[in-house]
Q: What sequence folds into this?
């Protein structure tokens, strides 16, 4: 399982100011192996891990020239939007160009995403940098070193996570469940509350919401809904108040959805405005 992608046109306006700026890798390098499982997202300029395992990541940025001399420049790998590792630091003594490189070896889970950034310690805001295009200039390589190369159609993929305390609001909010019961392929992200589907097929989603005491007007409700790629998909059974007395809402249900590899799935919860605030 491997991918190689590069910057197809010069990226101008790169302006790190003691900060890192994303390099928008936008083209699959089909001449050098391409993307074996279609995991590179060219719209968002990132590689999205579909199968958990150990990965080797190589990045290269060729800058056309340095604008702030005698200061540090470097390439960086970001995982899930956060700086994870910086490559060797280069100090430019002249305005000539330079190549910045970075390597990283790590275990990654399904749904993790990888991006390439350029770091500059000086202020490049007034005179910005240019990252040169080209398959041998500015590129990102990802190779899985261990773990299954692919998931068999007969293989069981499932996870179960729980949360002991969740505040239920009036707007649909993703329920984040931090406690793992099991996760066969590391597909659930406890930071986002989303599972990344590693293989296409029909998936079954089971959810339960057991709530503390709450009151509401007759016909007010508490709802659970599945979301796919950030959009509401299917509703589970809802709890509807039949009395104004205090009750402990309980919602449980199962939905089946057809999903593609790389889709993200989660659960949202909400209550009618007339229902008092409560914890699940």
A:
């Amino acid at each position: 399982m491997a991918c190689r992608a590069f910057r197809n046109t010069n990226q101008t306006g790169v302006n790190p100011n003691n900060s890192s700026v994303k390099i928008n890798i936008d083209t699959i390098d089909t001449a050098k192996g391409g993307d074996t499982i279609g995991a590179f997202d060219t719209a968002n300029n990132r590689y999205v891990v579909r199968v958990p395992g150990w990965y080797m990541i190589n990045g290269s940025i060729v800058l056309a020239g340095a604008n702030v001399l005698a200061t540090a420049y470097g390439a960086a790998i970001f995982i899930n939007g956060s700086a994870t590792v910086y490559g060797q630091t280069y100090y430019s003594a002249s305005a000539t160009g330079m190549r910045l490189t970075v390597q990283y070896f790590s275990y990654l889970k399904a749904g993790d995403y990888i991006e390439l950034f350029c770091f500059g310690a000086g202020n490049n805001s007034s005179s910005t940098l240019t990252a040169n295009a080209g398959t041998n200039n500015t590129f990102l390589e990802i190779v899985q070193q261990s773990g299954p190369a692919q998931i068999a159609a007969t293989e069981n993929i499932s996870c179960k996570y729980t949360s002991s305390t969740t505040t239920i609001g009036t707007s649909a909010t993703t329920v984040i469940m931090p406690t793992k019961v099991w996760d066969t392929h590391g597909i659930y992200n406890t930071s986002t509350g989303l599972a990344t589907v590693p293989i296409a097929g029909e998936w079954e989603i089971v959810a339960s919401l057991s709530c503390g005491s709450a009151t509401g007007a007759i016909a007010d409700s508490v709802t659970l809904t599945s979301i796919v790629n950030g959009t509401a998909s299917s509703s589970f059974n809802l709890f509807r108040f039949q009395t104004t007395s205090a009750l402990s809402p309980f919602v449980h249900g199962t939905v089946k959805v057809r999903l593609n590899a790389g889709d993200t799935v989660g659960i949202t919860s909400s209550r009618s405005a007339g229902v008092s605030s409560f914890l699940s």
The radius of gyration is 23 Å. The chain has a mean pLDDT of 83. The longest strand covers residues 53-63.
